């Protein structure tokens, strides 16, 4: 089936070449960072996580969201998802590869990542994060490929793959839960020390992932002639709607707890994020943009008339993606460091090197996703002839 990824229109070839060019440019900037060190980034002693880890936390959610297709389709026989479940699984594969890539580029000495394998430490959350991410990657690539190959040969999938499908459902929840524990378990970071960090992560994941999949379904229908089906898209839209409502509710709970209790160590991070402290206000426009776009998207999704309109639904999904990319990725990570435990305000802004490397990793993920989608769509279109 791999040969199907090498065939396509001129537009497809141009897209592949463009992605390869961005990957190469990002790779060149990464070599500069690898040679000079993380001093080329906007990170500092006070803000030791930046754009890279922000992408990591967001993309783990995109990967986990595949369960919102796998669970209804395989456990509840929701046949509307039959055409796009494979797209969700392959999206998880690409997202996990990007997650791992962002962790690697965030390390000043990427060779030290092998210490996780050479010297496993089960008492470390980071060790378990590696285990669940790599395991989830293998589950999705094996399940997706085996099921697609069986579909191509017009035979039932082998019996041994069904336990893997059932295992992938709780495993999807585990990858985002462990990532949330990695952050919320850090003492001295009041912004992250909340018991609902894992539920917040899961709610935002089940909104952003399906929203992105809806957008991909529209793009695929426009450029590849593959229709995921109106019922499947509307089912995904309802999932996005409920998840966004829950996500906003959890954020409201955080606001109540922080400002009702008036605990300074917790309040200062929210004040910095939404109002700024002194001259420190880099994140304020982003925080308000996230809130406004999230509320607007939820309103559009809650009204059946607007949710059923493909153009408005597409716009709402873009707003959901933008809102949660800011809120759960960039804002969540950076605001956790500002103010520092010593009440110091050290602003952060990503450098040009960081941005180019980030674009390179995103291009890598989109390239892998494009090739996997090309294979899956080609197989399904052949069966429909």
Task: Please give the largest β-sheet.
Answer: none
Count the domains: 1
What is the count of β-strands? 0
Please compute the radius of gyration using only Cα atoms: 21 Å
- CATH superfamily assignment? Formate dehydrogenase/DMSO reductase domain
Which stretches are poorly predicted, pLDDT < 50 over at least 5 residues? none
Helix content: over 70%
Instruction: Note the total helix count.
Output: 14
**CATH topology description:** Formate dehydrogenase/DMSO reductase fold
Morphology call:
globular
Terminal Cα span: 17 Å
Coarse structural class: mainly alpha
State which percent range the strand residues make up: under 5%
Overall pLDDT confidence: 89
H/E series: HHHHHHHHHHHHHH
Commentary on this structure:
The protein is mostly helical. It has one domain: Up-down Bundle (Formate dehydrogenase/DMSO reductase fold). 73% of the residues lie in helices and 0% in strands. Helix 7 packs across helix 8. The longest helix has 33 residues. The chain is globular and about 65 Å long. The two termini are 17 Å apart. The model has no long low-confidence stretch (mean pLDDT 89).
Topology:
Elements (H helix, E strand, L loop, with lengths): L9 H27 L14 H14 L2 H9 L9 H22 L8 H4 L6 H28 L8 H24 L12 H28 L5 H32 L2 H11 L9 H19 L1 H4 L2 H26 L16 H33 L1
């Amino acid at each position: 089936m791999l040969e199907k990824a090498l065939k396509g229109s001129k537009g497809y070839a141009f897209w592949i070449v463009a992605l390869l060019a961005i990957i190469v440019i990002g790779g060149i900037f990464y070599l500069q960072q690898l040679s000079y060190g993380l001093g080329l980034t906007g990170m500092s002693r006070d803000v030791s996580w930046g754009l890279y880890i922000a992408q990591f936390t967001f993309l783990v959610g995109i990967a986990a969201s595949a369960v919102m297709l796998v669970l209804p389709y395989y456990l509840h026989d929701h046949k509307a998802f039959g055409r796009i479940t494979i797209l969700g699984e392959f999206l998880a594969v690409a997202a996990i590869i990007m997650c791992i890539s962002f962790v690697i580029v965030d390390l000043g000495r990427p060779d030290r990542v092998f210490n996780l394998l050479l010297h496993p430490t089960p008492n470390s959350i980071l060790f378990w994060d590696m285990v669940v991410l790599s395991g989830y990657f293998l589950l999705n690539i094996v399940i997706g490929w085996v099921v697609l190959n069986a579909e191509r040969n017009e035979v039932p999938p082998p019996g041994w793959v069904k336990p893997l499908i059932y295992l992938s459902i709780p495993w999807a929840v585990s990858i985002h839960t462990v990532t949330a524990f990695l952050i919320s378990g850090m003492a001295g970071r009041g912004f992250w020390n909340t018991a609902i960090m894992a539920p917040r992560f899961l709610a935002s994941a089940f909104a952003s992932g399906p929203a992105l999949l809806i957008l991909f379904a529209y793009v695929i229908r426009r450029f590849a002639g593959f229709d995921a089906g109106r019922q499947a898209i509307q089912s995904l839209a309802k999932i996005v709607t409920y998840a966004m409502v829950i996500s906003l509710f959890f954020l409201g709970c955080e606001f109540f707890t922080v400002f009702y209790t008036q605990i300074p160590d917790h309040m200062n991070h929210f004040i910095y994020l939404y109002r700024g402290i002194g001259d420190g206000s880099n994140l304020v426009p982003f925080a308000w943009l996230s809130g406004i776009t999230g509320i607007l998207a939820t309103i559009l999704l809650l009204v059946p008339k607007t949710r059923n309109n493909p153009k408005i639904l597409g716009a709402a999904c873009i707003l959901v993606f933008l809102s949660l990319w800011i809120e759960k990725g960039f804002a969540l990570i950076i605001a956790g460091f500002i103010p520092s435990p010593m009440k110091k305000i050290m602003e952060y802004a990503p450098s040009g090197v960081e941005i180019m490397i980030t674009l390179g990793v995103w291009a890598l993920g989109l390239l892998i996703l494009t090739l996997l989608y090309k294979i899956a769509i080609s197989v399904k279109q052949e069966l429909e002839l």
